[in-house]
Amino acid sequence: MTTIPSPEPRERAVLVGITSTPDIPRHLVEEYLDELKFLADTAGADVITSIIQEKKQPDPATCIGSGKAEDLAGLVEADSIDIVIFDDDLTPVQVRNLERILKCKVIDRTGLILQIFAIRAKSAQARTQVELAQLEYLLPRLSGAWTHLSKQKGGIGTKGPGETQIETDRRLVRNRIASLKKKLRAVSLQHDTQTRGRAAVPRVALVGYTNAGKSTLMNALCPEAGAYAENRLFATLDTKTRRLELKINKLVLLSDTVGFIRKLPHTLVESFKSTLDEVLQADFLLHVIDVSHPGFEEHMQVVRETLKEIGVKHDHIIEVFNKIDALDDPAILTGLRGKYPDAVFISAVRGLNLSALKETIANYVARDYKTRKVKTHVSNYKLIGYLYDHAEVIDKKHVDEDVLLTIRVHRNNLKQIDAMLKASASKNHAAANLQHHETHD
Ligand SMILES: Nc1nc2c(ncn2[C@@H]2O[C@H](COP(=O)(O)OP(=O)(O)OP(=O)(O)O)[C@@H](O)[C@H]2O)c(=O)[nH]1
Ligand SMILES: [Mg+2]
């Protein structure tokens, strides 16, 4: 397992969660804090301790209340804490007040996720998307008092959108936001033209909670994929698409995508729209679930909600329960099979049940195949060639100068075939008219 290369020493962090029984019970907050710990670790911080505060309503000035904040300040000093990370969203005012009381950096979950994306982003597109999300997060927080980011040295606070942007005023930040949006629109347009050509092949996207095993599954199904998989959150930020050969219906294009998480910052979802286009344009989705995680059902819900947020309207989703090798008790698996009868249970790492998964994908694809009869002139090589390339020709008959083909074809191809038939019909019509004129003359 590799860790994030960071020349900076790891920072010492305290995590803060808030329970408000019965709405958010303690055991749930503990689970959230476990995840926050994983996030902090991914970002390069060592979690020294976590505290849970019981509070019906967050305090507008300090979130946890000023008494608790004073206690926390003592702990920060005693344990040489560099950063306090809140699981709940903080307002800019709360951050300022807390930093004054605690005398260390304060960040919320959204800010932390943005930091991780900034560290993780490798491609130019991902970097643009993350910078946009960071600036949008920063904009309402930019004021005379917002100086802590530029003061940060080292550790998880360093990977900001760049000193120059932070120090500029709102107008400059807004300009930068506008220019990044323009850049992303251009990428998205370019992407559209690139993907239009391959509309003929059915497309499948892997979606799921971060760390569920999407990239591992991609590698298991398409050995040449070389997708980056790691026991870290947000290992994948760029979409990768590979050909997956299925035995019955030849081929699908499989895409690995960025993982989702509880409270994924809205600005990130927005700016990752072009990456997530792959999800929107897929014919169906494989929802990968880490069944060994105690919170997997909540994760499933988060993924479903995020899909709704990005605009996935269809319900062509195959649920893939991964990591069955990591379940201690076989009875759990039996129970789950009963509860989710349509799901496929696999282990991507061990390669368990992958052929059943491929078969399920093939059956799904088969549902989208239609049988059609196409009649055209024998000399219409363009259309006939297209049909042989893109469809399965089940039967072929000659009727005078025409050929009658019975084909099985993916519904994505029907439009193109109709357009080609129409074009050849009008050409024939024109030719017939010409002939008509010729005989007249
Ligand atoms: N035990 C077990 N571990 C698995 C399995 N599949 C994946 N993992 C592990 O889970 C971790 C995350 O795997 P990834 O494939 O990177 O997960 P991902 O869904 O692509 O994660 P993001 O890109 O961060 O969203 C890695 O450490 C994998 O080795 C499995 O079937 N069993
Ligand atoms: Mg991944």
TrEMBL record:
Keyword Acetylation tagged: no
Query: What is the first-listed, main subcellular location in coarse terms?
Result: cytoplasm
- Which key words are in the record? Cytoplasm, GTP-binding, Magnesium, Metal-binding, Nucleotide-binding
Named cofactor requirement(s):
Mg(2+)
Domain (Hflx-type G): give its ranges: 202-369
Q: Which GO terms describe its molecular function?
A: GTP binding; GTPase activity; metal ion binding; ribosome binding
Signal sequence, renumbered to the chain: none
For whether the record's keyword set contains Transmembrane, the answer is no
GO cellular component term, pick one = cytoplasm
Name the InterPro entries for this protein.
G_HFLX_dom, GTP-bd, GTP-bd_M, GTPase_HflX, GTPase_HflX_N, GTPase_HflX_N_sf, P-loop_NTPase
Write out the residues that bind GTP: 208-215, 234-238, 256-259, 322-325
Q: Where in the cell is it found?
A: Cytoplasm
Enumerate the PROSITE patterns for this protein.
Answer: G_HFLX
- Which SUPFAM superfamilies does the UniProt record give? P-loop containing nucleoside triphosphate hydrolases
Q: Which residues bind Mg(2+)?
A: S215, T236
Quaternary structure, from the entry: Monomer. Associates with the 50S ribosomal subunit.
Q: Which family does it belong to?
A: Belongs to the TRAFAC class OBG-HflX-like GTPase superfamily. HflX GTPase family.
Protein role:
GTPase that associates with the 50S ribosomal subunit and may have a role during protein synthesis or ribosome biogenesis.
NCBIfam families annotated for this entry? Answer: GTP_HflX
Q: What is this protein called?
A: GTPase HflX
